[in-house]
Secreted protein (Streptomyces pseudovenezuelae), 101 residues
Amino acid sequence: MQHNHRVAALIQVICLALLVFCLIERQVRQALGPEQTMVGLYPDNRRVRLTGRMIFYHLGELTLRIGHITDPPTVQITRGVQLHLLDLLDTDIGQTRWPQT
């Protein structure tokens, strides 16, 4: 292998994904404060310390309903823990990215 551009690109993509993963986990933990535990991640509602994997597991269940000309796209939140995580991440899901015409 004289040219390993593909391997270098793959490593860069993996590093960027890990960076985003860590930044999201850090943001949620800072928003939780010194206690850094949250209720609602498990079915028995015990208080646990958050991990990035738990955050992405719960946010991975979010679905986007595609809008029409008169109806903007909406994010369908099926569980309260998803809304709480989006609030901790300071994400405004009510604002559309496309200008209204």
Remarks:
- The first strand starts at residue 37 and ends at 38.
- The mean pLDDT is 83.
